[in-house]
Amino acid sequence: MKNLNLKIIQGSALKGLLGTSLLLVFYFVIVTSISGWNFAQDQFLRFWYFILVLAFGFGIQVGFYSYLKSAVHQNVSAKVVATSGATSTAAMISCCAHYLANILPILGITGLITLITQYQIQLFWAGLAANLTGILYMANKVFGFVQITRSKI
C-alpha cells in the first residue's frame, strides 16, 4: 500500500512539473510567435515573478488533480475537474491577455487593446487570485480524500 501511495505521489509530482514546464513553453511559443523572441524575453524578465508563480500554480493544480485521479481510480467528480480546469484557464487567460494587444489591431479592436495594456498588472493579479483559488480547492479535495481514506484503515 505504501509503495503504491509513493508511486502515486511521485507520478503526480512529475505530472505537475510537466504541467509547469508545458505552460512556460506555451507562454514563450505564443508570445514569440506574436511579437518575436526579443519581446518575449523582455516581457519575461519584466514580469518573471507573475509568470513563474502562475506556471507553478498551474503545475500544483495538475499534480493535485493527477493524485486524486490516480488515488480514487478515476472516481473524481466532474465538478472537481471542471472547477480546476476553469480556474487554470482563467489564470492562463489573465496571464496572457495583455499579449492580445499585439494582434488585436489586425482585428480592429483598438478599445480592448487599450484596456488590456492599461490593466496588464491587474490582469496578472486576477490570474494569481484565480490560480490560488484553484490550488486551495484542489488541496481541500486531496486532504479530504486522504482523511476519508485514513479513517477507513
UniProtKB/TrEMBL annotation:
Instruction: Name the keywords, alphabetized.
Output: Membrane, Transmembrane, Transmembrane helix
**Protein name as it appears in the record:** Uncharacterized protein
Q: Which residues cross the membrane?
A: 12-35, 47-68, 121-140
- Keyword presence, Transmembrane helix: yes
Q: Has the keyword Transmembrane helix been applied to this entry?
A: yes
